[in-house]
Write a structure and sequence with these properties.
The complex is a heterodimer of chains A (195) and B (404). Chain A has 195 residues and is of the alpha/beta class. Chain A has a domain of 124 residues: 2-Layer Sandwich (Beta Polymerase, domain 2), CATH 3.30.460. Helices cover 19% and strands 22% of the residues of chain A. Chain A has four helices and seven strands, in the order αββαββββαβα. A five-stranded mixed sheet of chain A has the order 1-2-5-4-3. A two-stranded parallel ribbon of chain A has the order 6-7. Chain B is mostly helical and 404 residues long. In chain B, a hairpin with a 7-residue loop joins strand 7 and strand 8. In chain B, helix 4 runs antiparallel to helix 11. Classes of the chains: A alpha/beta (195), B mainly alpha (404).
């Protein structure tokens, strides 16, 4: 991991670096969404940093926090054998306004990872050349990795048979019920309407 | 039949010149997995390719957020289902990083043995399937025979051929069997012999070479910007192997080399995988020599590791510990960690976020072949249609891993 990258980011972007930590040995910098792409470009282009290998981009949902989402980037420097994690926080409590600059101009590999993050979390990457769903089908409504998307919800492309059509009682519940028979230690995020 | 009375000027086109659209997949006999490529062709040349994945999406990142940390192991199995043990070990190491656990020496060697066996199985499958897609059935059957030997060992060890679910937080489900070393030492020469025979049949074959050489070429810089890791990146000459660059388990104590290519073409990717099978065999023999005959396999930490079954049934402390770990799950310290290991296709990363309870807040899997598959578009554009088959085969897209 790279402490140097954190120091250089703080020197270059000042107050736009909200927070840094090195928990479990992973050096992490949290920046303002406004400097997201500039910080990424800096990490790639600074000769002393040279983070040229794109590793991962994803998002994490913290439903009780504002901003609600964390967009997380991991990059690696092949020459210096170091890693860094860059994060930014976007989105309000309702999950609106999750917009951040696309990193495709910085690392071409960000393309599919941003599409996936858009698909799963609904983060909109501005300037992405082709932002559409990647793992799910275009007709899908919602973003399933958000905590307020119920895990047992289904959206079949072809509607299920009704009980009248089938002529029998159809039980759509999971075999052990909604909590799969294990209510201990589980967390449930119910949708806002309380159903 | 009347001749078509067309009064064409010389040089005028007879055929319509608009591009042709072709759907390749989602289910195509020459495709490695369920993937669809929408092609725009001009004659036989690809002018545009849109790779569409997601047919095997099962939403297991969401499912991981509903169970305990230990319940993620069966999902991890189904990531790269050709080398499930590498995923198991990768996830176990990620959780152990957060818990601050280090497994006993015997477990480390054991994990390396199982992991390298899985890597051999992964590379054998990839090279075999690639040869088969080009019409070479015999090498495919020979390499599959080799994979069968690997799976026999894994079955003997774990009880399952494919989806082992054998990793645990702070150890493994069971200690190594007595016959493990003999099985490894006995099977490896046979597997290597099969690899040699298959290699001799393929690499002296003009047709096979012509279809691989200088096809799907990528430079090291492009590959890195795309996020390529593993054999595909090493074929471009960049020697990035996590086992060497950031050794985990006991990889710093074994002697092995990192095979690299020079041109970054399909043939190099094929050869790098063959080279890695030989290096894995070398590692396996060293591990078999150094695996201790006795000693603990699991960490002695009641917060994370299940107690011995004997204690569960005879002592109240053991019963309570077992109940708490099974029903509430091991309580992983709050925070975030990214852990990476060398999977079959490259850097297999787990980015875990814990809120301090027995259930993960977020399990992000960084599948190596997701990044690799997105490079396919670049590799095949302006190439011939038939080049898709070897190029895509050499990328080793595994649907379970790529589609989450």
């Amino acid at each position: 991991m790279s402490q140097l990258a954190l120091d250089k980011l703080k020197a270059k972007f000042g107050a736009a670096v909200v927070e840094t930590h090195s928990q479990f040995g992973d050096d992490t910098a949290v920046v303002e969404p406004g400097v997201w792409r500039a910080a990424a470009e800096f990490l790639r282009d600074d000769p002393a940093l040279d983070f040229n290998l794109f590793v991962d981009l994803c998002a994490v949902d913290f439903p009780k926090r504002v901003p609600r989402f964390e967009v997380v980037l991991h990059v690696y420097s092949f020459a210096r054998r170091q890693r860094v994690r860059l994060k930014t926080r976007v989105g309000d409590e309702e999950g609106e306004g999750c917009e951040v600059d696309s990193l495709v101009p910085v690392w071409t590999g960000a393309n599919w990872f941003e599409r996936e993050t858009f698909d799963m979390m609904g983060i909109v990457f501005q300037g992405h050349p082709d932002l559409r769903r990647i793992l799910l089908y275009p007709e899908f409504v919602g973003h399933p990795l958000r905590k307020d998307y119920p895990a047992q919800k289904t959206q079949p492309l072809v509607a299920y048979r009704t009980e009248e059509e089938a002529g029998t009682i159809l039980d759509k519940l999971a075999p052990f019920g909604g909590d799969e028979g294990m209510a201990f230690g589980r967390k449930f995020y119910l949708p806002k309407d309380g159903n | 039949m009347e001749p078509v009375d067309l009064d064409l000027e010389e040089g005028e086109l007879e055929l319509p010149s608009e591009p042709m659209h072709l759907n390749m997949g989602p289910s195509h006999p020459a495709m490695h997995g369920t993937v669809r490529i929408v092609l725009e062709l001009s004659g036989e040349t690809i002018t545009k390719a849109d790779v569409q994945i997601g047919y095997l999406h099962r939403g297991f990142e969401k499912m991981c957020e509903r169970g305990t940390w230990t319940q993620v192991f069966p999902y991890a199995d189904r990531l790269n289902y050709v080398s499930p043990m590498l995923n198991n070990v990768g996830f176990a190491l990620a959780v152990e990083k957060m818990c601050g656990l280090e497994v006993p020496e015997r477990c480390q060697w054991y994990r390396m043995i199982l992991g390298e066996l899985a890597r051999i199985s992964d590379h054998l499958t990839c090279d075999a399937a690639m040869a088969m897609e080009l019409g070479a059935i015999t090498p495919f059957l020979w390499l599959m025979k080799g994979r069968e030997m690997v799976w026999d060992i894994l079955e003997e060890e774990t009880g399952a051929r494919l989806t082992h679910s054998f990793g645990r937080i702070g150890g493994m489900a069971k200690p190594p069997t007595d016959g493990l070393k003999e099985m490894v030492r006995g099977s490896l020469p046979k597997i290597l012999h099969l690899v040699e025979e298959a290699e001799a049949m393929l690499l002296k074959n003009r047709i096979f070479l012509d279809r691989l050489e200088n096809i799907g070429v990528i430079s090291a810089a492009d590959a890195m910007a795309l996020g390529w890791t593993g054999p595909c990146l090493r074929s471009t000459g960049a020697a990035y192997d996590i086992r060497k660059a950031h050794p985990y388990l006991k990889y710093d104590e074994v002697d092995f080399e990192v095979p690299v290519g020079t041109r970054g073409d399909t043939l190099d990717r094929f050869l790098v995988r063959l080279g890695e099978i030989r290096q894995s065999a070398k590692i396996l023999l060293q591990c078999a020599d150094r695996l201790p005959e006795s000693g603990p396999v699991n960490c002695d930490d009641p917060r994370y590791v299940l107690p011995d079954k004997n204690d569960v049934y005879t002592t109240i402390e053991g019963t309570i510990q077992h109940f708490k770990l099974v029903m509430e799950g091991a309580k992983v310290p709050a925070g975030e960690a990214y852990s990476y290991t060398e999977g079959g296709n490259g850097e297999l990363g787990f980015y875990l976020v814990s809120d301090g309870t027995g259930t993960p807040h977020r399990v992000r899997i960084r599948p190596p072949c997701f990044a690799i598959t997105q490079g396919l578009e670049k590799l095949v554009t302006n190439r011939m249609l038939s080049d898709i088959i070897p190029t895509f085969g050499s990328l080793n897209m595994i649907g379970g891993e790529c589609d989450h």
